[in-house]
Design a protein that fits this description.
DNA polymerase, domain 1; hpI Integrase, Chain A; elongated; 3 domains; Double Stranded RNA Binding Domain; 3-stranded antiparallel sheet
């Protein structure tokens, strides 16, 4: 039986005496020590009292409060905890709202968000080119489609027309779509498997031979390892920003973008370590590069005159050196046919032919972890100590002036 009246509740609220007044059926009027007045539903589960807020008074009247406890009382009769039932209902409403919001996010919007999250580490050329490929090949087909609705058929509509004629570009676009869809899933904008993934999916639907041929054509021109000491000798005589950058590139086996955007806070010259965050790595896994004594030596010289957080500052919007600075330097030295990325192949050839280090160590020196998921789960080492010895031997060879003079004489220059 109900015990309270509307007038009685008004009077209790005005008196503001802290405590709880029972109306019956588990409904209580609660007045806090600070004077707040609200409705509480009190019940027991497995002998323990639980309290469920119904709402504040007078926003919720006595009649409304009595009506509001009907549902939780039904839950109790069914053996369901009212608080858990309400939490489930709220979560269901939240998911429904999220699903509705996700349906409003187009693929173009998702791609733009991905670029905002990752584009800060890209070169200007890559930043513009990444978006341009989507404009040319993806957006006309999928741009206005909700990102949650992108499926295998949609991806094939984009890739099939260019797979045989522009396979390398098509595969790059496929990778971009895969990244955008993965990010969209992480943001709660879509669910399920990624229809743009290659392994175990599109490999069964598109000609893999075309992809292999395209990859084969992609190999970067590389200098013979026997010629590296002569080049390093030339570079050591050039006291320019670009020459220092080229030396770091060659002696660490790093990618050009890693060198171009290198900052002093990534380097511990006392411990001889270059630490790169996951965001700075192609595979999005943090990586540490051991620095040989030769590298630490010229970096200390470079740091002495540092005026920027970047090792190799520039005048562009990024604040770092131009993306083609090292290439232009090499061209100026007569190495027009050599690419920056090719020095990674040069190092790898030298390691295979001139050292006894295992394939795993040599590949890890290039931040290539070729272990499968099972192997990685049990063997989590990054071979850092062995890589330190390997990179030290590489630097010792590459900066050997005797070898440099021999290679120059041998080349007839």
């Amino acid at each position: 039986m109900s015990k309270l009246t509307a007038a009685g509740v008004k009077s209790l609220a005005k008196l503001a005496v802290p405590g709880m007044t029972n109306d019956g059926r588990g409904l209580y009027l609660q007045i806090s020590k600070t004077g707040g007045v609200s409705w509480i539903f009190r019940y027991k589960v497995e002998g323990k009292s639980r309290y469920m807020g119904i709402g504040p008074y007078p926003a919720v009247s006595l009649a409304q409060a009595r009506e509001a406890i009907d549902a939780p009382r039904r839950h109790l009769a069914q053996g369901v905890d009212p608080l858990e039932a309400r939490a489930y209902e709220e979560e269901s409403r939240r998911k429904a709202i999220s699903a509705e919001q996700a349906r409003a996010v187009t693929f173009t919007s998702a791609a733009r968000r991905y670029r905002e999250m990752h584009g800060g580490a890209w070169s200007e050329k890559w930043y513009l080119g990444w978006w341009r490929k989507l404009e040319l090949y993806a957006f006309p087909i999928v741009g206005d489609l909700p990102v949650a609705a992108v499926d295998t058929g949609t991806v094939l509509k984009i890739l099939t027309p260019i797979w045989s004629t522009k396979t390398r570009t098509a595969d790059e676009v496929r990778g971009q779509i895969e990244n955008v869809l993965d990010a969209a899933k992480a943001l709660g904008w879509r669910q399920g498997e990624n229809p743009a993934r290659w392994r175990g999916h599109l490999i069964n639907l598109l000609d893999n031979k075309e992809k292999k041929k395209a990859r084969k054509r992609e190999h970067h021109s590389a200098m013979s390892w026997s010629q590296v000491p002569a080049l390093m000798c030339k570079l050591s005589e050039i006291k320019s920003r670009d020459a220092y950058a080229a030396r770091l590139l060659i002696l660490t086996g790093a990618r050009s973008q890693m060198v171009r955007l290198a900052t002093w806070d990534e380097f511990d010259l006392e411990s001889k370590v270059w630490s790169l965050t996951a965001e700075r790595m192609k595979m999005k896994v943090a990586f540490k590069i051991p620095l040989a004594d030769e590298v630490v030596g010229f970096l200390k010289d470079l740091r002495a005159g540092a005026t920027s957080g970047f090792l190799f500052p520039g005048r562009g919007a990024s604040g770092a050196m131009h993306a083609n600075a090292i290439r232009n330097l090499l061209h100026g030295l007569g190495h027009v046919e050599i690419t920056r990325h090719g020095f990674r192949s040069t190092f790898r050839d030298w390691a295979a032919e001139c050292t006894d280090f295992s394939r795993e160590v040599c590949e890890m020196a290039l931040a290539h972890d070729e272990r499968d998921q099972t192997e990685s789960a049990y063997s989590r080492t990054d071979f850092f100590d062995k890589r330190r010895i390997l990179m030290s031997e590489w630097a010792s060879f590459a900066t050997n002036m005797v070898v440099a003079k021999v290679s120059v004489i041998g080349s007839g220059t």
